[in-house]
Amino acid sequence: MNELASKVIKTLRERSLHIAVAESITGGLIGATLTTVPGASKIYLGGVVSYATRLKSALLGVPDDIMREHTVVSEEVAIEMAVGLQNRTNADWVIAVTGVAGPDPQDGHEPGEVWICVLGPRIPSLPQSRQVERFDFEGDRDSVRLQTVDAALEMLLRVVSPV
Amino acid sequence: MNELASKVIKTLRERSLHIAVAESITGGLIGATLTTVPGASKIYLGGVVSYATRLKSALLGVPDDIMREHTVVSEEVAIEMAVGLQNRTNADWVIAVTGVAGPDPQDGHEPGEVWICVLGPRIPSLPQSRQVERFDFEGDRDSVRLQTVDAALEMLLRVVSPV
Lengths: 163, 163
Prior knowledge:
The structure is a homodimer.
Chain A: H1 3-14, E1 19-23, H2 29-34, E2 44-50, H3 53-58, H4 64-70, H5 75-89, E3 93-99, E4 113-119, E5 130-136, H6 141-160
Parallel strand pairs in A: 1-2, 1-3
Antiparallel strand pairs in A: 3-4, 4-5
Helix pairs in contact in A: 1-6
């Protein structure tokens, strides 16, 4: 069982909140990590692995013109992935990740460049919590993916349980 | 890099075929395993993690009455998950998995019960390849999930490259 995932599940369970995840670079690894925790099914709804560009539009509704203009490794696409998944799942919290694991660059982006969006609940008359961060991770393909999982879960914990 | 995943990616690449995965019990672990392989993005499109029951209908179109009648850990739901994902992605091959990782039973099913469906390309005037198998794995939560990943990839390899 993953420690960070366990903390996420516990934190969300205490607040009766659900989470869904839209994954590109990690290919399902965030969901796989969250579900190492027994009882995760009460909190983690699931999500979409939009690894291929065309699944980002087909399964999440990311507009093609945004992907063309900004490339799929961008702040804009991370946000659209999160918004698209929240629309389709009604999850309270959504994490979306897009980036380059390597070994090769992609669309002019170096391996290790990762964008993470953490989107909060839509509550009438309150501004919606939306965090987006860019990371430039060092290391090989596996390392970049693992660092992306940790960074995403840490971002979520920071906003869900502010210190 | 996972050996079995590497074999799957190589086998599909030689045949110019794409794959998508609908995961319940594994929570994203099949996608995460396939994407340990550099270059997986040319073959693995992505898919849906329909961990919660309601995402099986919302993201894959699994009919509610089928889930009620057969429970979500069933041959029928594994097939509907695969068909739903193929409709949404046009992937040549689709894997769908549903089961109980444990530690607790679910809907009357013991931990270790897993259904896997492997669905082949839709080619006009040819019958579609559709394999469904039930497994009863021993071991703890992590072990059941890892055995599910291996069994799914092995099933796919058997039908894509028959000996």
